[in-house]
C-alpha cells in the first residue's frame, strides 16, 4: 500500500520483507557475492585467489582501505598491528569475574564491549584518525582476547602476545604455550589458521555485519558495535554453525550408510527442527566458494598430519555426497557452507569446539570494522526499520 511513510504528508511505498530477503540496507564497495554462481569478491579480488596468494593481514588492509597495500604500506600496517597486540593489564580482572566454565563467546561479548572503557582517548568517531586507530586496536587485540578466553576456561595463566611472530603464529602461541612447556608452532597449522581467518574475514550484509552497522548508525563507539556483532554471530544459524557441525558429526558417530541416511531423513522431516548443520545459505544457491577452499585446506592439513582417514572427515565427506544427490537438497539448492569443513581443521589443530565461534568472531572483526568505517565515513542515517502492526486497534482503558 502507498502510505504516508513519515507522517509528514509525503507518500512512499512501505515494504514488508521479513528476514530482509529482498531489501538492500546500504550501499557498499567492500564485498560482492553472486549467490547463483558461487562468486565471492573482496574489493574485486576472488576469494580463492586471495586465499592462495595473500594473507590475513594484507586482506585486513585491503578490506579496510579499499586497495592492496604497497610493500612499505604493508610493512607499516603489520608493524602497527604487532604494536597493539597487548591488552590493558586491568582487563584480566574482567575475565576473573566470569565463571571458569562460561562459554568463551559470552566472555568475548563482555570483554570486547569493555575495551571502550580503556580507549577514551580516541573515541571521536567523526575523526578518521580515531576510526583507524580503533580498527587497528580491534584487529590486533582480538587474538589476545580470544586466547585469554581459552586460557581462563582451562585455568592456565594468560600468555602475553609475542610480537616477533606472525598474526596466526602468535594466536597459536597464546592459545597453547604454557609456563612449563613452550609450544612448538607447526607451520602447517599456522598456514591453515591464516586461511581460516581469511575465509571468514567478510561476507557483506550478513546478520552480524548488519547488526554492527545498525548499532553504529546510532553513533555508538566501535568497540560496543563489534560486541553487538559478536552477540549476533553466536547463534547456531550463523557463526555458531561451525561448533554445531562438529557436535552433529559426533552425534552421527560413524560413516555407515544407514546411520548417515537417518540424519539426512531427520533434516528433511518438516516436523523435526533438526537441520543439517553447515548446509545451506541465505545468499548462495550454489557451492559456497569458501567451502571449496576450506575442503582443500582440510585435506591438506589432515594429509600432512597423517590423518587423511580421520573418522569425522569420512563422515563429513559421505554426508556431503549423499546430501548432494538427494532430491530434497538438490531442489532447494542446499550446498555445504564455509563452516562444514572448518571445524574438522580446527579440531586437528587442537582447538576445542567451544572456541570455534570465537575464532570466527576474531576473523570477522575486520569485516565488521570495515563496514562500520565505510558507513561512518560516508552519509548515513540511523537504522530504524518500520513494522507491520498486527495488534489491537486503539481501545479505551477501563475506568471501573
Ligand atoms: N537442512 C535441512 N533443510 C534446510 C537446511 C538445512 N541445513 N537449510 C535450509 N533448509 C530448507 C528449509 O527447511 C527450507 O525448506 P522449505 O522450503 O521446504 O521450507 C528451505 O531449505 C529454505 O531454507 P530457509 O530456512 O528458508 O533459508 P534461509 O535462507 O532462511 O536460511 C540458513 C539459511 C539459516 C543458513 C539455513 O540454511 C540453515 O539453518 N542452515 C544450517 C545452519 C548453518 O549451517 N548456518 C551457517 C550459515 S553460513 C554462516 O553463517 C557462516
From TrEMBL:
One of its GO terms (biological process) is tricarboxylic acid cycle. GO terms for molecular function: citrate synthase activity. Pathway: Carbohydrate metabolism; tricarboxylic acid cycle; isocitrate from oxaloacetate: step 1/2. It catalyses: oxaloacetate + acetyl-CoA + H2O = citrate + CoA + H(+). It comes from the Bacteria. One of its GO terms (cellular component) is cytoplasm. The keyword Transferase applies. InterPro entries: Citrate_synth-like_lrg_a-sub, Citrate_synth-like_sm_a-sub, Citrate_synthase, Citrate_synthase_AS, Citrate_synthase_bac-typ, Citrate_synthase_sf, Citrate_synthase_typ-I. Keywords: Acyltransferase, Transferase, Tricarboxylic acid cycle. The active site is at 281, 339. Belongs to the citrate synthase family. This is Citrate synthase. The lineage of its organism: Bacteria, Pseudomonadati, Pseudomonadota, Gammaproteobacteria, Oceanospirillales. The gene is gltA.
Amino acid at each position: 500500500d502507498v502510505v504516508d511513510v513519515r507522517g509528514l504528508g509525503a507518500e512512499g511505498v512501505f515494504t514488508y520483507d521479513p528476514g530482509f530477503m529482498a531489501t538492500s540496507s546500504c550501499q557498499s564497495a567492500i564485498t560482492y557475492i553472486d549467490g547463483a554462481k558461487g562468486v565471492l569478491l573482496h574489493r574485486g579480488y576472488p576469494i580463492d585467489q586471495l586465499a592462495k596468494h595473500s594473507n590475513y593481514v594484507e586482506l585486513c588492509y585491503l578490506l579496510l582501505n579499499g586497495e592492496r597495500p604497497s610493500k612499505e604500506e604493508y610493512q607499516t600496517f603489520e608493524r602497527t598491528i604487532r604494536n597493539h597486540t597487548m591488552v590493558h593489564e586491568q582487563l584480566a580482572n574482567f575475565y576473573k569475574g566470569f565463571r571458569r566454565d562460561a562459554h568463551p563467546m559470552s566472555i568475548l561479548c563482555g570483554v570486547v564491549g569493555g575495551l571502550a572503557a580503556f580507549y577514551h582517548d580516541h573515541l571521536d568517531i567523526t575523526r578518521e584518525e580515531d576510526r583507524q586507530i580503533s580498527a587497528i586496536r580491534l584487529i590486533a587485540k582480538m587474538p589476545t582476547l580470544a586466547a585469554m578466553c581459552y586460557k581462563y576456561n582451562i585455568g592456565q595463566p594468560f600468555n602475553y602476545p609475542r610480537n616477533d611472530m606472525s598474526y596466526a603464529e602468535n594466536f597459536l602461541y597464546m592459545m597453547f604455550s604454557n609456563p612449563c612447556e613452550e609450544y612448538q608452532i607447526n607451520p602447517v597449522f599456522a598456514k591453515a589458521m591464516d586461511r581460516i581467518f581469511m575465509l571468514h574475514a567478510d561476507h557483506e550484509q550478513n546478520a552480524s555485519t548488519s547488526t554492527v552497522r545498525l548499532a553504529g548508525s546510532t553513533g555508538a563507539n566501535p568497540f560496543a558495535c563489534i560486541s553487538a556483532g559478536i552477540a549476533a554471530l553466536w547463534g547456531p544459524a550463523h557463526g555458531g554453525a561451525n561448533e554445531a557441525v562438529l557436535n552433529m558429526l559426533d552425534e552421527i558417530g560413524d560413516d555407515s550408510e544407514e546411520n548417515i541416511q537417518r540424519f539426512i531423513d531427520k533434516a528433511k522431516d518438516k516436523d523435526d527442527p533438526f537441520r543439517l548443520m553447515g548446509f545451506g545459505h541465505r545468499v548462495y544457491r550454489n557451492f559456497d566458494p569458501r567451502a571449496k577452499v576450506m575442503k582443500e585446506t582440510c585435506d591438506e592439513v589432515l594429509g600432512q598430519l597423517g590423518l587423511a582417514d580421520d573418522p569425522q572427515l569420512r563422515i563429513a565427506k559421505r554426508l556431503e555426497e549423499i546430501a548432494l544427490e538427494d532430491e530434497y537438497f538438490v531442489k532447494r539448492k542446499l550446498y555445504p557452507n564455509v563452516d562444514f569443513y572448518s571445524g574438522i581443521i580446527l579440531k586437528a589443530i587442537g582447538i576445542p569446539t567451544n572456541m570455534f565461534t570465537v575464532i570466527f568472531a576474531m576473523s570477522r572483526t575486520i569485516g565488521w570494522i570495515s563496514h562500520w568505517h565505510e558507513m561512518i565515513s560516508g552519509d548515513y542515517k540511523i537504522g530504524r526499520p518500520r513494522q507491520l502492526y498486527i495488534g489491537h486497534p486503539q481501545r479505551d482503558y477501563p475506568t471501573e
